[in-house]
Amino acid sequence: MINHSKHQQGVTLITVLILLILITVVGLYAIRNSIFSLKLATNAQVQTLLMQTSDVALDHLEKNFNANESTNLAGTPIGQVLLDGNQGKELQFCFKPTEIESSAAKNNMFFNLGDFRIIERASATAATGVSAALSGDIDAVCNPEKMFSISRKAIVTQVSVVNPDDPAVEMRKFELTNKNTDLKADVDTKRIRVVATSFAPAMAPSVTLSDMNACLSGRVMDDLLLKNRADSTSGQVKVETLHECLNQLGVPLNTQVAEYVVRLTEAKN
Q1: CA angle at residue 158 from 154 to 164, to 5 degrees?
Q2: Taking a C-beta distance cutoff of 8 angstroms, is the pair 175, 224 a contact?
Q3: Which residue among 46, 101, 123, 204 is least crowded, i.e. fewest CB within 10 A of its CB?
Q4: How far is CA 149 from CA 57, 115, 125, in A?
Q5: Cα separation of 57 and 97, whole Å?
Q6: What is the percentage of the chain residues whose pLDDT exceeds 90?
Q7: Is residue 2 pLDDT above 90, yes or no?
């Protein structure tokens, strides 16, 4: 007599196992897809926050100029790069409204004359490296552990300001003028270009602080200056910017570039 019961049980067991495998595969796919969607949403949110933070830094620079241009122009980043001999040189500083000191947060002013550096590239034949500080403190760069551009202590923003030596190009420019400008005055027009790079150190856990610090301390930020571009006739190579350095490490970041026309006026007698 043939035992059909054991045969049916075996077929049922195989069917159940196949269904379990299918359910597991579908479940894993759904989980993987949801995690991928979450990563996309998180990356989009981080990019939005980074872009907004860079814009805030630019807005503070404009307000700083407008508040000080008539009484303390040299005390502003724009005033510093407009000083004789500073054309084509890069002023860098950290935009750090929030700074951690001894586990406590302190609020900083936008720009401090004791906390910036004016630099150039170290060599025309090397893409990396900067000169000794031509003015200010060579170590006046952001510290990703302590200096933050938002109160959430998640975003770091470094800013560069230059009075460009490269030819002007047709692009949208923002005009900064002295208050109460006399239309009959002699007008001295200057160009200013600002680069603001914001990044999220916590979103790159595999990147060491020493690597980020190397980018911050050893890179210029403006690659449009004539001395920072590639020039095959002289053997000059293009610089590697802070943005490029951090991007190669895999750090989420956003860089905003704004160019301004500054009209410095002297009223006629």
Answers
A1: 155
A2: no
A3: 101
A4: 8, 15, 34
A5: 10
A6: 50
A7: no
